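Risk register update: the risk of archive-format incompatibility is retired. Evidence:
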Amino acid sequence: MFGDFKAFINRGNVLDLAVAVILGGAFGAIVSSLTEDLLMPLIAAISGRPDFSGWFLRLGPLPAGYTGAPDDYAALKAAGVPMVGFGAFLTALVNFLMVAFAVFLIVRQANRLLPRKEAPAAPPEDVVLLREIRDLLKAGNRE
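Archived output:
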């Protein structure tokens, strides 16, 4: 079993996948920073709100003994107040679109740089005819 596991780990695909996961995590951190530190503040400046996480719809009453602000999303969430946090969703959506667009650009560029595999040319008619004759002769010998 250990030998099979070692062979599995040493295969190129597993190593490529491990590298991709590590690079993906680093790439995700870069895109998150791009979104949270650059893009979202610009959108917030245009929309007039500095933080999208404050965009939510409270669905239930404040719990008894709640002392936090009624417009503090994080405190309300920690207190268990039912809410629809569409601001947090909007931030996650922008993050996703940024990652998807960046991956699209990388794949698009890689497709341009990598050599294209040409489809094998169809064999000439006489070769196809000879193959058919060979197959018929083989089938006739089996009978």
